[in-house]
Amino acid sequence: MVQTCSELGVKAHTTDNIGVWVGDEKLCSLGIQVSHGVSYHGVSVNCSVDLRWFDRIVSCGVEGKSVTSLTAQLNRRVTPAEVAPILVNHLSQRLNFNCVMQ
Question: For residue 55, what pLDDT is reported?
Answer without folding.
Answer: 83
